[in-house]
Amino acid sequence: MRDVVFTRRSGWIPTVIRVAGELKLKLAAGADANHEPREFTVPISEAHLAVIEEDLARHLLLWSAVLPLCEAAGTEGRLDETAAVALLDPILLAPPTDVDALFRRIPWERIRLVAHGADIRLLERGQVYDAMRAATATANEKRAQEYHADRRRAARGTVLGPLDAAILRYTGQYLHGATIPRRNPDAVDTELLPQVMRVIATAEQACAGMRINLDPRRGNRATDKRDWERMTAAVDAAVRRPYPELVDDAVRTVSFLMCAEAAARAKSAPPEEDDLGVRVTKTALTFTDDKGSEKRWRRDGPRGASAEFWEFVAERSAGDNEVFTIEDEEMGEGIQLHFYADSIARITTVRPGEDGSDPEYQVEYGLVDGIGGYRQLVSAFVRGGCAALDQHGPWTSDVAEFERARRR
What is the pTM for the complete model shown? Predict the structure, then answer.
């Protein structure tokens, strides 16, 4: 039979219960094999209970000191009760100077104290008792998260200035750098917001007119890595010139914001129809991949050949499916795209097969510079066949020479 003797009814702060006449401090910490919080108890005395009831600061300090012992117990281990009991008198009954001395020797969970209002400046100086004078029973988890984020940055040598912090709050990346950035002006102090907006305006001017296109080689929603890197470099350089004091985290979040917005525009835009409205020599084309899939395109259809082909690629491209072909059976020519090697082959029929003999083909190879290069070559072939690819060379039929060029 358990009776609750004392609780602050606030979050996870430990409570005091009575079990078979014995007082125990009960707390949930760590996790079991199912990722559920484990429950631990530590025997305490009436004197300890009196301090816990009257002194929130010491109650929280005790909690922060016992938490590492709970974590050490793992998913199934037992709490080191002897070590836990040894913390009771020094934290709950000793003078403040002795409490500070103890916390310089033991592991303790500072994040919990920050969440409950600890003075961070005093906490960092080792004055844990005085740091808890303004302690609150209600936790401010955002404050704790920001403190944890600042400690992670400090561990790699980064200290934020006021403008750095304001920019990270504006993009929503103060806590987590992997969060997709968005514009949050309400998260910034009114005094700093005009400065933040000037930084953002500088970035917008730097990437005006730049685009981040989709890369169908990596699926329907993937973006071109080179476009992303190009925009990042442009924004970073533009922002650093007038604001050299900004830390890398702040500059990076601004370029990430610009790139994320450009990528979102590309993903929401209708598919490009770069063959419509121009003269296309092809009347019918066949698209195939390395897995035996096939799709037929005809000129009298509703969409251009390039758009149809890249949709075909986006739906089927994968790590084990990186070779795609466009063939014009009527003209006896085609191109084969090798995404794994940044290369392309153009194939023309020199002599058709007759009387059971195999046809004779000329195969020439060329290097391709990213998805932009592939798009240009596909469009050129659709418009003018293999002859239209001459200007996009050089081309070679020597496989060994081409392989050396590709490796270079």
Answer: 0.77
